[in-house]
């Protein structure tokens, strides 16, 4: 472990944090990005400064960055000889040292005598104990801590970063500092404020209760809306919260979080690891997200956000007879066979082999993984039969195979005043643990990290009539408030042929059966009587929009039929729609409203074309597609 001397900002090495000769301070902060200030100084930068100062006799602390200097000065003022700062106390050119630091990070912070939480974007001064007590007395009133001073604190970028979660939980004594390095308060002082805004229990921050007393799902929920620069760090920054050690492998993407869950499953009996509720926000409804939601493992810790994840706890059986205050339906579920030690999970290529209690209710299958909400209501995992990936029903492993159903979790309270479920029976089953290994052409395995654009075979040929780049497609997808993209018509053909009568249809759809379709094609229409056939080189483009209405509004089949009909229709207005006739190859389209509740409102799409630099005589590119429309609800 490398530490800086607070008087000179020189690096010194100790075999472990326990071997540091005296108490040390530690810094928790957000790294500067371009535009945020001076670049962070690395281990090598500090070494170079030390070498130059040896020659001229200057103090390195006077030359290092302001952040390092101010931190050293403050720690020295508070009586500490050493300070640890992650930017410059890890030699990141050494993979072994980086791995050790990542796996030891929680311990580094836990063993520090004081942790400084530097909030560079907060100007608030000291929060007095009297005003904090006055605010906490008003809890759980949502307006508590509503003063702008508290708002600035709660909005700090520091609370949005993944690594700062364990840096907040691990230390015993933690002091928040403002942008001017003045004390705002300790984490114990501000515990209720932090709990109200970020859901981390005040008792944990005050060290009245160990974080290990909270379920796996609850601890995962503390991550909530935090972000990391690298997707792998979503897993690595949580190692300490679950007492896990595993080697970091940068480049593996979100597979790191799957590895973390496998390690948690091996070391913790707590099955709330599987009690996540699905993709946050509306992005949970496209085909890829649905596939992820049917798996036992979550794609990222953000999938544990929400009220239920914060409340769900692991409650293995401790009784053999029903409680007197249970309803008759709850009592039926109390009759568990066996004990908690019989519940096992193991990773196999076909899925998680699980030995768990299974029961059926109204033709639906549920797993009893010993979950309850904090008010005592039982929670169960919904399961659906499926054939394991790459197998058929005839060559499967012999174990019944399931995927997780939708919705994932079902409350036992729904069975009140209805027929009780069948008594659970212990079974060995397979549960899907990851998305299918079979992928669409051009699709990467880590599609959870980004929204994938399907491959467009027609655009891969040299003589493609039109190209629409993935970057532009993603931009329009976001602007138009669409949820997913499809390619239809001639775009699926490779190689493209000049006599193809189908247009290429770029289809943007929402989960609520609304669409915008950009169609581009070669003109195959004949001119007026007595005129020669129009040259096939004439490119045309149109934009159509709409929604499923009336009796079709709730029918996926009818909606798809409508999309297919619009996508393959080659009819167009030769006078208005031929691209080369547009001024500057640009045109504005008025599109039918996608909102049944506001049919009079219009949406607007602007298409802009240019000649393709690769093949300017035969290919046009959609240089830009911009959307503007009614800013109404999507539901």
Provide structural commentary.
With 635 residues, the protein is an alpha+beta fold. It has helices spanning 43-56, 66-77, 95-111, 129-136, 148-154, 163-169, 191-198, 202-205, 216-221, 233-236, 255-267, 287-293, 307-311, 328-334, 470-479, 556-568, 574-577; strands spanning 2-5, 11-13, 24-28, 82-84, 114-118, 174-177, 183-186, 313-314, 344-348, 351-361, 364-372, 378-385, 401-411, 425-431, 466-467, 484-489, 504-509, 514-522, 539-547, 586-591, 603-611, 620-628. It starts with a strand and ends in a 7-residue tail after the last strand.
Q: Short description, anyone?
A:
By secondary structure, the protein is an alpha+beta fold. The chain contains 17 helices and 22 strands.
Describe the secondary-structure layout.
Blueprint: E1 2-5, E2 11-13, E3 24-28, H1 43-56, H2 66-77, E4 82-84, H3 95-111, E5 114-118, H4 129-136, H5 148-154, H6 163-169, E6 174-177, E7 183-186, H7 191-198, H8 202-205, H9 216-221, H10 233-236, H11 255-267, H12 287-293, H13 307-311, E8 313-314, H14 328-334, E9 344-348, E10 351-361, E11 364-372, E12 378-385, E13 401-411, E14 425-431, E15 466-467, H15 470-479, E16 484-489, E17 504-509, E18 514-522, E19 539-547, H16 556-568, H17 574-577, E20 586-591, E21 603-611, E22 620-628
Parallel strand pairs: 3-4, 3-5, 5-6, 13-14, 15-22
Antiparallel strand pairs: 1-2, 1-4, 6-7, 8-11, 9-10, 10-11, 10-14, 11-12, 12-13, 16-17, 17-18, 18-19, 20-21, 21-22
